[in-house]
Design a protein that fits this description.
The chain is an alpha/beta fold. Helices cover 40% and strands 21% of the residues.
């Protein structure tokens, strides 16, 4: 992992230094900036594999910087994780809608942060997939392309498998249909948002056979969430 560069953009000294320490202990190479303007200079001069970006920055905000980068051909595929003190679900959805790959709400544990970073890097292909995801008695094996509940296989299509892989990598988080399309189908593919609903219904039907249809929850006005909590 030591060859992966993470740029931390945070104007509060104590938080920035804490983030740098946590990331270096996890064997990442860390670059730092205190503003969006400084971040752009660092990006122009260095290879950056992931951007850890504070929502509220002086001058150009983190949200505005993320929007700008996602419009630039050279940076549109750069993974971005937003750091935010905002707890409202609407704000989190807004962060994902502008193109951020994930968000972490302050305060957060170092362990959670590293797990989120690794999940985003796996999805972007920058970190090797460990192969298996396990939540409760639900098991997903990426290498064998197998999804099981209590040891019994579910007959899912390749798209539904990727959808479950994304959900299981990001439990308890709400994703809009647009974000799911971007992450599961890809930004270069034009597909109607309702296609997501079709695959969600199919997955729920399969999960219902095991009494687990509630694992994929509808959040009215926002999208879908995968969670063990009802």
């Amino acid at each position: 992992m030591s060859n992966l560069n993470i740029l931390v953009v945070e104007d509060e000294d104590a938080i920035r230094e804490m983030l740098m320490m946590v990331l270096e202990q996890a064997d990442f190479h860390v670059l730092a900036a205190v503003s969006a303007e400084e971040a752009l200079k660092v990006l122009a001069e260095n290879r950056v594999d992931l951007l850890l970006l504070d929502w509220m920055l002086p001058g150009i905000s983190g949200v505005e910087l993320a929007k700008r980068l996602k419009r630039e051909p050279g940076y549109k595929d750069l993974p971005i994780i937003l750091l935010t003190a905002r707890g409202e679900e609407e704000d989190k959805i807004r962060g994902l809608e502008i193109g951020a790959d994930d968000y972490v709400t302050k305060p957060f544990s170092p362990k959670e942060l590293i797990a989120r970073i690794k999940a985003v890097m796996r999805r972007s292909g920058k970190l090797g997939e460990s192969g298996q995801l396990s939540i409760g008695d639900l098991m997903l094996d990426a290498e064998q392309h197998r999804l099981t509940i209590a040891g019994k296989s579910l007959d899912v299509s390749p798209t539904e498998f990727r959808l479950m892989q994304f959900f299981m990598s990001n439990p308890d988080k709400v994703f809009s249909r647009t974000h799911l399309l971007d992450q599961v189908w890809g930004r270069s593919v034009y597909i109607e948002e309702r296609t997501v609903d079709v695959h969600i219904r199919r997955l729920r039907k399969l999960l219902a056979e095991f009494g687990r249809e509630e694992l994929i929850q509808t959040v009215r006005g926002f999208g879908y969430r995968f969670s063990l909590a009802e």
